[in-house]
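User: My collaborator sent over this chain with a note saying "see what the structure looks like." That's all I know about it. Can you take a look?
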Amino acid sequence: MIFPHPFHADDDGLLAYGGDLSPSTLLAAYSWGIFPWYSQPPILWWFTHPRCILRPSKVKVSKSMRSYFNQKRFKTTTDTCFEQVINECSRVKRKNQETTWISEDMINAYIELHHMGHAHSIEVWEEDLLVGGLYGIAIGNIFFGESMFSTASNASKFGLITLCRFLEEKEFLLIDCQQETDHIMSLGAEIIPKEEFLHTLKKNMEISVDTSSWKWK
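Assistant: Without extra context I'll predict from the sequence alone. Here is the result:
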């Protein structure tokens, strides 16, 4: 599928519709900051702008969250149960949405990307119970965040902060948050113009893609 230029997106971010969720289509889309978001066919493709991003080195860790880390309240892993994480994310009820946008087709598509080494999950555990997590796509030095879930207080924040520390070590430039939320802004996210975001994406295309499985040190 050939996408229109991202700047052709309307004020809400809608850029195109149709196509498929094949790995090649999804990777081409994400490389340009385009992502699928729909509840029923046809597939809707979005380039939201201005863009909400989080720089790993600038993540804000509140005093209360620091205590979670000092007490080692949770354990985190990555790429150990991607399918469980995305399925848990699909069950999260979103404000003003009657149905989930993470359909069975979406789940299968991202699982395939995970098997190819492009999609990654972060899992948050309380003893042996999975209480939070998130997943997204890594291309070059950008992590395109997709969704997160939490069944224990601050579990998703714990996972995202841990991810930021990991990505900073790997010299990632940013996490694409797609849309502004109070939750993500409280962690240090910022809004950048679409011109700056697209420039970063173009530079990112020059970086080789690492498809190895992620493991914490």
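A starting point for your reply to your collaborator: DSSP finds seven helices and ten strands in the chain.
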